[in-house]
Fold this protein.
Amino acid sequence: MFGSYDLHAVSERYKRIDGCLDYLARDTELFGYFAGDQDIEPVMVAEQLSIAPLAWEAQAVTYSYERARGLREVGEHADGFAVTAQKTIAVPVERVFDAFVDPLLRERWLPGIKLVARTATRSKVAHFDWSDTGSRLHVTFLDKGDGRSLAAVQHARLADAAEADRMRAHWRAALAALKTHLENGAADA
């Protein structure tokens, strides 16, 4: 047992999931409705493959099926595209959190970007609306010990793959700028 999961049982489930793409590709009766505008439903996949209650497994199978059939691009979700970036920074997690949520501190490493704070839990997570585009920014903070922190950014609800590529590059550069800013003695951030 690992946590509340029996590793043997989980392993057996993965073996069954590994064959799911072949199963889905062959089962044209079950997925014949793809000719229309309907999306595949993860709940239905879970029931067909008896993989409930771990719904993320059903979602993973659904996503893989849609990718294999060319129905979904990498990073595409129901509400648009999403990209992620992360960076380990050699400062305490509180400083990294403050550098994101305090607009004055944020301007020093992320100039000219308007973020509207939605919710935040100190040194754990912060959620923002990005400018006027309707996209969302989710930032997770992790204390890695020894005065090091991880900032993980997910930028969601992006309009298309080109915008996702642009924002992926943007966040990699922005997190590198944050790391340089904080590690090179920005005492007030």
